[in-house]
Design a protein that fits this description.
3-stranded antiparallel sheet; alpha+beta; 112 residues; 3 helices; 6 strands
């Protein structure tokens, strides 16, 4: 006699598992507050797996890339802030990026 396949066996079960893992990762990303803070002491980019701190003098330029705000350093390295990615908010981040550039171009406040 043949055996009856259990639910979850075969390609359909594996696809369902893959979908469940993907959805779980998406919610993990959303819940673990990615954020970008810009203040007189510098820039703090918080992602689910790392927190990066940059001094304003470390940033040679900034642009909005496919994965978020890209802070280019004078030494050639780049730090990406995923908080400004479309995945983090689900919408275009052009307005928030313009606000970020305005803060960086303004520089430190008098007395800071």
């Amino acid at each position: 006699m043949g055996s009856v396949p259990r639910s979850g066996d075969g390609p359909v079960g594996r696809a369902g598992l893959g979908l469940a893992v993907g959805v779980g990762l998406f919610f993990w990303w959303s819940i673990h507050g990615v954020r970008l803070e810009v203040g007189p002491d510098g820039i703090v980019a918080v992602d689910p797996w790392d927190t990066r701190r940059l001094r304003p003098d470390e940033v040679a330029s900034v642009r909005l890339g496919a994965r978020g705000a890209e802070f280019h350093h004078g030494d050639g390295f780049t730090t990406t802030a995923y908080a400004l990615s479309e995945l983090a908010a689900g919408t275009s981040q052009a307005r928030r990026f313009a606000e970020l550039r305005a803060v960086l171009e303004r520089g430190p406040e008098p007395g800071d």
